[in-house]
């Protein structure tokens, strides 16, 4: 009887629709209250994200780091871990990558840039994994605190010992060597295919490998995972390290391809937006791609709102926040709704 | 640079940085005592700061009222979401954290230039380095301190306090149901009260002289308060002391920068977080809590 | 006292397919102590919980408002982080200032009545379990409601404590007209204390009489049924022991019971059952045997060697914890994934990157569903959507499947209907016939009689083998001692 799976799909669709509607209504309300032309803003939003080649490039440029930071949240979430400090790993690894790649020329510069970023991010969030498995500190709290620490640490170092004397009002590190720079075409760079590849690999690993099975089992019921002989503590640390590595890769790519140097200005919220991406993807690593593009579109559209309607700079973040709350609120109906749908079908 | 001026800068910084943290922490003691963990406080504080800045245009009292009411409403919404059968407290908290921060930044944009009436304050005149300096002592801080003492007393001495403590314990739901009370309602009330105190924090941020809203205002206050209260095991007087200590560390960094021109302010501002992580990392495991 | 009795009428309650109460009726006259007798699982706790409003009945009326009832549950309900005095105060309504002196004086008087010496300012979580129980009963007396329910009050008390408690109950019943309902599985205990005796068996009332009109034989017959003494279908005799024991437990001490030691050898083809009152270390023992907790002292050996790390099923050990759906399955994963759980885990990194053979796995799950005749949609259904009975059947089949050489099961029969119990018994017998050793940790003696050829008694963390010929009499003698 495929009824149950159909009920689940219907439920997912209904919740997605309800959340979108709720977020849309919220946006119209906020826009109206703050004096923006509410309905016109929707047109601007659409044109600014998908309406032209430029808009599309903007969307995919923003989506590129989100693929990786979204994965950095979605992957541990599959193991039942709410690691929400990708922002911290992102900036720390950006700094590590920029510093590592600043003093080396030649073929090794690029691997060094990426490697330093990945390692720094992995070590940074690995702390959360250890705190969780050895001390029972909730990973959401520790990773969030560490995100603040990371941004402050980067600010401190970049305003101090690592400051490039040539950077004036916005302090940054010295630019990375030319050999470490990734080519980019109007904002699009190697990070996009890399991010897509990472999502597909993650999908294969989570849904089609024995390792992924253990991961999902631990996320669904840690007691059952222990019952099946899985070392849940080690898995926790591994997932936090992996999360940090992914966010770190995003940070390193941002330095290598876009910013060419690191500074506190890199903390644009890609890490936090990654939480929303993971939330939309709901544990499906393939869906991270679509979710990253969607959130990237909000970022690009938010920019258009700012340019064309004089909307506040935080418009994109506002829409993301509304969507976030709407998804969490509507998500509470999951379960009872599917049962109701199934019961209704059975009555028919 | 004299030691006097450094001490003065430290005291001034403490009176500026301490009150928001103390207000939010005192209120969160109620929330955590009732067994709720409101990570969303980090988003509630900036929202209430914006509300205070907006309301403050009609008078400081209105600003405070708006912030308190808004904080209570937002935290109440959080508690409502958490009381639904299949919700995850932490996930709801993260949503409120991200959503609240965004809302504050969006609505607060453009409020920067508006002048606000400041909160009434007690002027402390301090003689240092041959000059007198005026330090403002906020009434909100005094109110929060009074509330901390009152909560400390009320949790032990009143029926309401006992019920609140019962709500936050394993087996509390059943025990409360046996005497005809609802754990859900108690937690809702306690979380809302915590939000109201977060509103005081936001009001202090936006209305304490010179006041106004700026991007990033209130960042770290909510998560700081939640962490402090967790470490203090929701004991209000301990939480006040910890919050004051945390604020003193940050103020010390600020004072060093003001008085000696040294860097390191960024590090001092997150040093409390590092200490909190160290404390949680070295403490004995406490099962059953977040 | 001439007040009307509290009339319980036709209360029925089912958990899934299992009926806990099948329409029971009582008259609880005020001013008296009513004894409620029954074996584990007879429905005593369910009845008391419904009367107290902690659970809703499917049918029937309780005849009393929950606000007029106080229940002291079997495992205690004091709040651990509050002091003794605060636990008194929190049970009375009122939001304002607590009149501590009055409460303290009254509490002290009630505690003295039960002969408890306790610091009123000590946290309840630090009390000795027996003292905590007495504090709870003192509080129940203090709250002074018309109907007071005590679930297994004597389980943790010694003889003088129990006598003092029952004397206090009688005084309160006489003075205030309170109706007390006291549950127990021990006949002599209630015979001494209660004025009227009621017996529940399998969710139905089998006897309800004044104390003097019921003989011990009547009560035993009502509690255990007439078919109790000869097992319905005796288990096969144990085969000759050959080779090393499949399972050996040597000098094992359980957490919380450091003095007692457990020794046990179980050979291929044997079926042993560990019986005893709940709370004597069953859960801890099961966790250690299942490899989920380290022993406090001593060792467990499988096939003469220490148990290997990782999934024990890979080494022929099937395990069925007491709530297998919560402890050994994932509700949000599919039936196929749960059925193939053991085959899909373990093996380190190299095997970890191997591809899962989904179609294969689903086909096998479908075959399993057909073989077990589970009335469910298919292998891709979510496990959490199955009925409780189907979940257990599926997990039993999973744990018995493959080349299982040792089967550990705790209360596998609990909550199953008669047909399912018969199927379970047959499956265990089949596993034995195939050379597996079976170890049950069970409470239902009827089931033990059908499924095991050796019976051991677990008491306070220690294990003693009961004589095979008359283990049931011996069990009752020891538990009632």
List keywords for this structure.
A: 348 residues, mainly alpha, two-stranded antiparallel ribbon, 2 strands, 75% helix, B: mainly alpha, 70% helix, globular
Largest sheet of chain B: 2 strands, antiparallel
Q: Output the structural class of chain B.
A: mainly alpha
Helix content of chain A: over 70%
Beginning-to-end CA distance, first to last residue of chain A: 15 Å
Spatial sequence of strands, sheet with the most strands of chain A: 1-2
Pattern of helices and strands of chain B? HHHHEEHHHHHHH
Largest interface: A-B, 47 and 51 residues
- The overall pLDDT of chain B, averaged over residues, is 87
User: What's the gyration radius of chain B in Å?
Assistant: 19 Å
Task: For the largest sheet of chain B, list the strands in their spatial order.
Answer: 1-2
Beta strand count of chain A: 2
Total count of strands of chain B: 2
Main beta-sheet strand count, sense and barrel state of chain A? 2 strands, antiparallel
What's the topology here?
The complex is a heterotrimer of chains A (348), B (290) and C (481).
Chain A: H1 3-33, H2 38-50, H3 53-78, H4 86-102, H5 109-135, H6 139-159, E1 184-185, E2 188-189, H7 191-208, H8 210-220, H9 222-227, H10 232-259, H11 270-281, H12 287-309, H13 315-331, H14 336-347
Antiparallel strand pairs in A: 1-2
Chain B: H1 3-33, H2 41-55, H3 60-83, H4 89-108, E1 121-128, E2 131-138, H5 139-157, H6 159-167, H7 172-178, H8 183-207, H9 221-231, H10 236-260, H11 265-282
Chain C: E1 6-15, E2 18-28, E3 33-37, H1 44-51, E4 59-61, E5 69-72, H2 84-90, H3 100-113, H4 129-143, E6 147-150, H5 159-176, E7 179-184, H6 187-193, E8 196-201, E9 204-210, H7 216-224, E10 247-254, E11 257-266, E12 271-275, H8 282-289, E13 297-302, E14 317-320, H9 324-327, H10 335-339, H11 341-344, H12 348-352, H13 358-372, H14 388-400, E15 406-410, H15 418-433, E16 437-441, H16 445-451, E17 454-459, E18 462-465, H17 471-480
Parallel strand pairs in C: 3-7, 3-8, 5-6, 6-7, 12-16, 12-17, 14-15, 15-16
Antiparallel strand pairs in C: 1-2, 1-4, 8-9, 10-11, 10-13, 17-18
Helix pairs in contact in C: 3-4, 14-15
């Amino acid at each position: 009887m495929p009824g149950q799976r159909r009920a689940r799909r219907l439920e997912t669709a209904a919740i997605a629709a309800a959340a979108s509607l709720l977020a849309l209504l919220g946006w119209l309300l906020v826009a109206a209250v703050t004096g923006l032309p509410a309905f016109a803003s929707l047109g601007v939003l659409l044109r600014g994200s998908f309406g032209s080649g430029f808009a599309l490039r903007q969307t995919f440029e923003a989506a590129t780091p989100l693929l990786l930071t979204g994965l950095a949240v979605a992957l541990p979430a599959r193991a039942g871990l709410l690691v929400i400090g990708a922002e911290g790993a992102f900036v720390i690894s950006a700094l590590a990558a920029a510093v590592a790649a600043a003093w080396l020329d030649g073929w090794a510069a690029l691997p060094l840039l990426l490697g330093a970023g990945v390692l720094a991010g992995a070590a940074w969030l690995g702390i959360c994994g250890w705190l969780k498995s050895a001390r029972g500190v909730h990973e959401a709290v520790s990773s969030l605190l560490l995100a603040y620490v990371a941004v402050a640490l980067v600010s401190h170092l970049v305003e101090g010992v690592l400051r490039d004397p040539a950077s004036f009002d916005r302090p940054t590190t010295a630019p990375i060597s030319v050999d470490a720079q990734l080519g980019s075409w109007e904002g699009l760079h190697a990070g996009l295919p890399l991010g897509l590849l990472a999502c597909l690999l993650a999908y294969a690993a989570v849904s089609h490998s024995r390792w992924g099975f253990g991961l999902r089992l631990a996320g669904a019921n840690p007691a059952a995972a222990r019952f099946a002989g899985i070392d849940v503590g080690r898995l926790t640390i591994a997932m936090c390290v992996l999360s940090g590595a992914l966010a770190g890769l995003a940070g390193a790519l941002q330095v290598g391809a876009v910013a060419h140097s690191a500074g506190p200005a890199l903390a644009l919220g890609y890490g936090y937006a990654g939480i929303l991406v993971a939330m939309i993807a709901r544990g499906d690593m393939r869906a991270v791609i679509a979710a990253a593009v969607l959130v990237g579109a909000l970022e690009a559209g938010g920019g258009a709102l700012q340019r064309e309607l004089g909307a506040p700079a935080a418009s994109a973040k506002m829409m993301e926040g509304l969507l976030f709350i709407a998804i969490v609120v509507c998500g509470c109906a999951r379960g009872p709704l599917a049962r109701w749908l199934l019961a209704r079908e059975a009555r028919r | 640079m004299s030691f006097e001026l450094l001490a003065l800068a430290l005291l001034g910084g403490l009176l500026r940085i301490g009150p928001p943290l103390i207000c939010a922490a005192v209120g969160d003691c109620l929330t955590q005592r009732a067994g709720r963990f409101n990570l969303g406080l980090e988003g509630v504080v900036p929202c209430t700061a914006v509300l205070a800045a907006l309301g403050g245009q009609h008078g400081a009292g209105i600003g405070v009222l708006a912030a308190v009411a808004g904080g209570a409403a937002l935290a109440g919404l959080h508690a409502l979401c958490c009381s639904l059968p299949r919700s995850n407290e932490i996930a709801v908290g993260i949503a409120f954290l991200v959503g609240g921060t965004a809302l504050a930044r969006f609505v607060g944009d453009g409020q920067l230039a508006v002048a606000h009436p400041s909160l009434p304050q007690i002027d402390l005149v301090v003689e240092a380095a041959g000059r007198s300096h005026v330090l403002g002592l906020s009434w909100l801080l005094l109110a929060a301190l009074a509330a901390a003492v009152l909560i400390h007393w009320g949790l032990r001495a009143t029926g309401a306090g006992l019920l609140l403590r019962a709500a936050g314990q394993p087996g509390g739901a059943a025990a409360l149901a046996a005497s005809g009370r609802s754990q859900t309602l108690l937690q809702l009330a306690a979380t809302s009260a915590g939000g109201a105190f977060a509103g005081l924090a936001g009001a202090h941020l936006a209305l304490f002289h010179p006041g106004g809203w700026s991007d990033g205002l209130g960042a770290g206050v909510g998560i700081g308060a939640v962490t402090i209260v967790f470490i203090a095991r929701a004991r209000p007087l301990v939480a006040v002391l910890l919050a004051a200590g945390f604020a003193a560390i940050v103020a010390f960094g600020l004072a060093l920068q003001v008085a000696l021109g040294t860097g390191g302010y960024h590090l001092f501002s997150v040093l409390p977080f590092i200490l909190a992580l160290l404390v949680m990392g070295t403490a004995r495991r406490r099962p059953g809590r977040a | 006292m001439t007040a009307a009795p509290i009339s319980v009428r036709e209360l029925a309650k089912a958990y899934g397919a299992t009926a806990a109460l099948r329409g029971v009726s009582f008259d609880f006259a005020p001013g008296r102590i009513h004894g409620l007798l029954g074996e584990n699982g007879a429905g005593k706790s369910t009845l008391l919980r419904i009367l107290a409003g902690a659970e809703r009945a499917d049918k029937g009326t309780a005849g009393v408002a929950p606000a007029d009832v106080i229940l002291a549950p079997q495992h205690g309900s004091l709040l651990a982080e509050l002091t003794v005095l605060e636990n008194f105060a929190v049970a009375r309504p009122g939001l304002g200032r607590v009149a501590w002196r009055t409460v303290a004086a009254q509490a002290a008087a009630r505690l003295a009545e039960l002969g408890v010496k306790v610091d009123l300012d000590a946290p309840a979580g630090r009390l000795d379990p027996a003292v905590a129980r007495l504090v709870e009963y003192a509080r129940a007396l203090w709250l002074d409601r018309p109907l007071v329910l005590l679930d297994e009050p004597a389980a943790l008390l010694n003889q003088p404590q129990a006598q003092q408690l029952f004397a206090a109950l009688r005084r309160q019943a006489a003075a205030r007209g309170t109706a007390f309902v006291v549950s127990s599985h021990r006949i002599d205990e209630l015979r001494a204390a209660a004025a009227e005796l009621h017996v529940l068996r399998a969710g139905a009332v089998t006897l309800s009489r004044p104390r003097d009109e019921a003989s011990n034989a009547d009560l035993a017959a009502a509690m255990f049924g007439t078919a109790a003494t000869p097992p319905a279908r005796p288990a096969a005799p144990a085969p000759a022991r050959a080779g090393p024991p499949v399972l050996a437990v040597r000098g094992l001490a359980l957490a919380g019971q450091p003095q007692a030691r457990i020794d046990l050898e179980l050979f291929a083809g044997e079926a042993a059952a560990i019986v005893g009152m709940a709370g004597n270390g069953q859960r801890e023992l099961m966790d250690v045997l299942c490899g989920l907790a380290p022993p406090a002292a001593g060792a467990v050996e499988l096939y003469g060697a220490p148990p290997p790390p990782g999934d024990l099923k890979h080494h022929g050990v099937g395990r069925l914890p007491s709530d297998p759906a919560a402890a050994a399955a994932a509700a949000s994963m599919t039936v196929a994934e749960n059925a193939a759980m053991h085959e899909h885990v373990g093996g380190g990194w190299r095997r970890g990157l191997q591809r899962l053979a989904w179609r294969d796995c689903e086909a096998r799950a479908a075959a399993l569903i057909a073989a077990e005749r589970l009335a469910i949609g298919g292998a891709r259904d979510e496990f959490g959507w199955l009925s409780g009975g189907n979940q257990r059947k599926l997990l039993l089949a999973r744990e018995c499947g493959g080349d299982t050489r040792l089967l550990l099961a705790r209360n596998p029969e609990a909550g199953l209907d008669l047909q399912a119990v018969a199927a379970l018994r047959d499956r265990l017998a089949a596993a034995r016939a195939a050379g597996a050793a079976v170890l049950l940790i069970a409470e239902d003696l009827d089931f033990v009689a059908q499924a095991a050829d050796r019976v051991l008694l677990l008491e306070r963390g220690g294990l003693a083998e009961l004589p095979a010929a008359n283990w049931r009499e011996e069990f009752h003698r020891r538990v009632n001692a």
